Amino acid sequence: MQGHKINGYIIMPNHVHVMITFVQTDISINTIVGNGKRFMAYAIVERLEKMGATEILAQLAKRVEPGRLAKNKQHDVWELSFDWKLCTSEAFMKQKLDYYHMNPCRGKWCLVASPVDYVHSSAYFYQTGKQGIYPVFNYREVVDMVFKKE
What we know:
Strand order of the largest sheet: 1-2
Strand content: 5-15%
Number of strands: 2
Shape: globular
């Protein structure tokens, strides 16, 4: 991730939350996130093709705007925008991670009884200290740190 650190995440059926510590760079957050979404979309489409998920691929193809079709875009996996918040305190970071981790346990989802049981989340790391399927850099270690590009 070019020096950036993922501090926490949750991958839900229809959305993703991620906390990232960015290195100092001249590249905007919009560009970094846009590039990340583009490469994830390629991987998602490739996996769907291997699975033979033609119905889902057809739905993603229908979402492509006409102007983007002209640029040879075949699938639209993500919404065109995203929402980000600057996390400037440990308390705010913990609040956000707690919100992420409780997502699959409440509301319309109720996918698991406990956050630690949801594999597409950093909750397992924060509750056990062991990395899950996606590696995480503990948010407590980045408070007051300055990440510089090497």
